Amino acid sequence: MTEITATESVSIDSLPRPKVVLIGTDGNAFALLGKMKRGLRQAGWTAPQISAFLAEAMRGDYDHLLQTCMKYAEID
Questions:
Q1: Which of 3, 12, 47, 74 has its CA 20 to 30 A from that of 18?
Q2: Distance CA 76, CA 65 (A)
């Protein structure tokens, strides 16, 4: 697996945006990240791409986490 630096970002132009259902999920940040990780994997994202998403999502506060999820997936 390729190491991803915290400054590397994922290009949303070339990656599929999966539909991820977060409604009804525990509001815990780790639960949301787990759902997103599964959705991205099912959409065909590679491990380095998912790692880059996780690094970006965890770079800020809870609001930043939610905004990043909405940036890379269609959220229900």
A1: 3
A2: 15
pTM tops 0.85, yes or no: no
Segment (H or E) for 20? strand 19-20
Alpha helices in 1-76 (DSSP H): 29-42, 47-57, 62-72
Q: Helix, strand or coil for residue 19?
A: strand
Give the pLDDT of the chain (76 residues) as one tens digit per residue.
Answer: 444 454 455 565 578 889 999 888 888 999 999 999 999 999 999 999 999 999 999 999 999 999 999 999 999 8
Give, in order, the Cα–Cα distances in Å from 61 to each of 42, 46, 47, 64, 66: 26, 25, 23, 5, 9
Whether the CB-CB separation of 54 and 8 falls below 8 Å is answered with no
